[in-house]
Design a protein that fits this description.
Length: 387
């Protein structure tokens, strides 16, 4: 194992495995109720192994695990999760929320509902196991609540998550703001713990090889199909438009599963065939990006809510740009004085083509509740999050 790093990214001269176990031993000894947030991906799998070892050394077995079932994941994912449920060191909580999930390939209807109660079960891609627990919460932040997992008196819930700062600058900045692997302030009665924040992809796979841990075999298939180890990710395959490359591989690797997904979710087959072109705006010959924005995102939008949100965003960015410039909003490339990378007509067209219903980059417009698309579906009950 390579040396681990502190939040300032300076080598500490100790290996990441023993350091991560020591972190969790400290948390266990504090008496909090520890819940491993499990996704059946490689990082949450490493967190599980770290917690099992720490719990074994501190006399706190079995380790409590919680997972929300999203219905559609790459084959091998839920099979791995079911193997974990059979481990004696684990107390597994398999939750079914029937929550909305992003389908980035259906512009008019950006959600599908996991295990949709309006569909007969034989139309689902798969069924959830008999021992799963159905819950009303839609927001993933509400999976490990004090109501579901009451902590000891005077203590908190600690959710262990597989965050690693190598994967994004935002994650590294978030860890810096926390000052360490534990968050400072509880939310909904729980703290977040990130014991493997300083692991690299190489550390993860070296640990699996050295210790012989079980893991999601979908990674093996993806790697054999040409995806390098640094790009191996397990997530709902319709979460973002860029996952079209994963769908192409899935179509070749798991054709029967892929056919079921295509029947279940409109737009998936088209995205696998044509890539980003299927889910991005098309600018006509001699058309400006401003004209393209007006046509694609407003005039010819397939739903009124897309046009309304695009209008709101257009007004906001045009007004913001006018505060510091007499020139029109740039066609391509943001104005040097604009604080947002979306300060051009091209960027706005791409960002608002699908209406951005989750407001992932557009904080000036609210996200759209599930109730809007399906009466009776309710609200998120928190910030929309999907993994």
């Amino acid at each position: 194992m390579i040396r681990c790093n502190n939040p300032a990214h300076r080598p500490l001269g100790v290996d990441v495995w023993n350091t991560s176990v020591d972190r969790m031993k400290t948390v266990y000894r504090q008496g909090h109720r520890i819940i491993v947030s499990f996704s059946a991906g490689k990082d949450s799998g490493v967190c599980l192994e770290v917690c099992i070892e720490a719990a074994r050394q501190t006399g706190n077995l079995p380790v409590e695990v919680v997972m929300r079932d999203d219905e559609i994941m790459l084959p091998g994912t839920f099979e791995y999760a079911e193997r974990v449920t059979k481990r004696p060191e684990v107390r597994f909580n398999w939750l079914v929320a029937r929550q909305p999930v992003i389908n980035a390939f259906n512009r008019a209807m950006p959600y599908f509902w996991a295990f949709d109660p309006l569909l007969p079960p034989d139309k689902w891609v798969r069924r959830f196991p008999d021992f799963a627990q159905e819950i009303p919460d839609k927001c993933i932040e509400n999976m490990a609540t004090t109501e579901r997992f009451p902590p000891p008196p005077g203590r908190l819930i600690v959710q262990v998550i597989g965050l690693r700062v190598e994967e994004s600058r935002q994650r590294k900045m978030g860890l810096h703001s926390s000052g360490g692997y534990m968050t400072r302030h509880p939310r909904r009665g729980s703290l977040l713990c990130r014991p493997i924040y300083d692991w690299t992809d190489g550390d993860v796979w070296l640990a699996h090889k050295r210790f012989g841990w079980d893991y999601n075999r979908a990674y093996d298939v993806m790697n054999r199909m040409g995806i390098p180890k640094k790009r191996l990710r397990i997530a709902p395959p319709t979460m973002i438009a860029w996952s079209f490359s994963t769908l192409k591989i899935a179509a070749a690797a798991w054709p029967k599963w892929f056919d079921r997904v295509c029947v279940r979710l409109p737009g998936v087959r088209t995205a696998a065939m044509f890539g980003l072109r299927a889910v991005q705006p098309y600018r006509k010959y001699k058309e400006t990006w401003q004209e393209c924005f007006q046509r694609e995102c407003i005039d010819d939008a397939p739903a009124a809510w897309i046009a309304e949100r695009a209008e709101a965003v257009k007004r906001y960015y045009v007004n913001q740009h006018a505060h510091h410039s007499t020139q029109p909003l740039p066609e391509v490339g943001s104005c040097s004085n604009c604080t947002s990378a979306l300060g051009s007509w091209k960027a706005l067209t791409i960002a608002m083509y699908n209406g951005n219903p989750f407001s992932l980059k557009m904080k000036m417009i609210p996200y759209i509740e599930p109730e809007f698309f399906r009466p009776g579906a309710g609200a998120w009950g928190g910030t929309p999050a999907f993994s």
